[in-house]
Amino acid sequence: MIDTPSLERYSRQMRFPPLGKAGQEKLLAARVTLCGCGALGTVLANILVRAGVGFLRVIDRDFVEPSNLQRQVLFDESDVANNLPKAEAAAAKLRQINSTVTIEPIVADINRTNIEDFCQGADLILDGSDNFEIRYLINDVAIKHNIPWVYGGAVGSQGMTMTIIPGQTPCLRCVFEAAPAPGETGTCETAGVLAPAVQIVASYQATEAIKLLTGHSAAINRELLILDVWENTQRRVKIAPLAGRKGACPCCAQRNFAWLDGEHGTQTTALCGRNAVQVSHRVQGKLDFAELARVLQHSGTVTYNKFLLKFHLVENGSPYEFTIFEDGRAIIKGTDEPEKARTLYAKYVGH
């Protein structure tokens, strides 16, 4: 048992009847893996560390940039000036917020070769990412190893979230059978994002996390929650009838972990001597270049023909050139680093 004085900082939380001292002690013993520490991830980490989750593993591949400060609540201008990785900058802030919580920052690109290790020993996985590839990898790992997880996403003024409990609720592939093709959905770079949408979605996710970690499964949200802070709308989509899709779901029903096995997702190849990286992304059918050009036109210069699309942009003073083909494959000039190319692809083309 934990002595009462050490619990004093959580006194207001413990006065909430469903939690109490027993619930707080469960939080203090809990282990959480947070995949991504950007907009959603920083809000999630901030809430959970203040709530007293005992161990938090924070994984992110990016560095802090000025455009992050509008919505990523754990960062400030000194992090930008010091060129800090997001995971390390977040960990430093979180340790100042609650020194009793163990924070494990990992600066890495989450992919099928490492995600199982990152989630090992976790009681819960939280989605703080910004692309569907990572979410499908999380879903595969969660179903394979029977770990609950909470999905969340926010772009523009809209957001959505749902909770996945293996064996009890539909999984991500029950609801979204396939990832959207590149360019089909907006990203923060192409469609923008309002910070309040992020805050609300992440707050719902964090509340679900607290319910799960304290054993309040009856209170879990078992629907897909969709909101728009600009239009003042909120709706819930009943997803229970999709559970297993009568045995058809390739993941939770058939236990086919295609994303973990490398059947889907992106692969990168550095092109020797060209300062370029090829990003291969499998899509069904052919890309709609006209629609993709419409999405990208506000971020740079776009030209296309029936064979390929060219996209030029300057980011943080560095020029990049994308050559995108009908099958989703892209050659990105301006870097020879595969992780940077994947980041650029996810930012502007999407997953």
Task: Outline the structure in words.
With 351 residues, the chain is α/β, with parallel strands linked by helices. It has 2 domains: 4-247, NAD(P)-binding Rossmann-like Domain (Rossmann fold, 3-Layer(aba) Sandwich), CATH 3.40.50; 266-348, 2-Layer Sandwich (TATA-Binding Protein), CATH 3.30.310. 32% of the residues lie in helices and 24% in strands. The protein is built from 13 helices and 14 strands. The strands form 2 sheets. An 8-stranded mixed sheet has the order 3-2-1-4-5-6-7-8, sandwiched between helices. Strands 9-10-14-13-12-11 form a 6-stranded antiparallel sheet, with helices on one face. Strand 13 (318-325) and strand 14 form a beta hairpin. The longest helix has 19 residues, at 195-213. The model has no long low-confidence stretch (mean pLDDT 90).
* Overall domain count: 2
User: Mean pLDDT, rounded to whole units?
Assistant: 90
What CATH architecture of the largest domain do you see? 3-Layer(aba) Sandwich
Number of helices: 13
Assign a percent range to the helix content: 25-40%
Q: What overall geometry do the principal axes of the alpha carbons give?
A: globular
CATH topology of the largest domain: Rossmann fold
CATH superfamily of the largest domain: NAD(P)-binding Rossmann-like Domain
How many strand elements?
Answer: 14
User: How would you spell out the order of helices and strands?
Assistant: HHHEHEHHEHEHEEHHHEEEEHEEEEH
| CATH top level class name of the largest domain | Alpha Beta
> Which structural class should the secondary elements be placed in?
alpha/beta
> What is the terminal separation in angstroms?
45 Å
Radius of gyration: 20 Å
Q: Give the biggest sheet.
A: 8 strands, mixed
Strand order of the largest sheet: 3-2-1-4-5-6-7-8
| Portion in beta strands | 15-25%
Residue stretches low in confidence (pLDDT < 50, at least 5 long) are none
